[in-house]
Amino acid sequence: MQSSNAFIGHPQRPSEPEILAALGPSADAWTQFIEWMAQEHCVTGQEWKSFNAAKYGWSLRLKQKARNIVYLGPCAGSFQVSFVLGDKAMNAARRAKFPTAVARAIAAAPHYAEGTGVRLTVKTPKDLPAIRTLAAIKLAN
Asked: pTM above the 0.85 mark?
């Protein structure tokens, strides 16, 4: 079951204190992942977006230049990580070793014209290795 975005109905971009408060115990994982993306992969672009804050809330795009790498959606006590993977990246993801729940999410991910949408929930730093592997696959393909 997917968690709801913590900022549904929030009219403007959430502030850093609001984000950390909403994330609760997952705030460390959020910060670690963003820092890891910047330090290890030079993914330093950040863009907050909301297509309809009243209905969907807000998400943070991590970008490498103009390329969207990953979308982070803050939820109450967790956050959603979403990747749009092309065919080469999906093939690499299918071959990679993941925990069973992550492998199932990859296998069940819906395919769209722009790629396959893989969405996972992060609650603790223990969830980060799989997310980091998917990010590396996305960046390599």
From this structure: yes
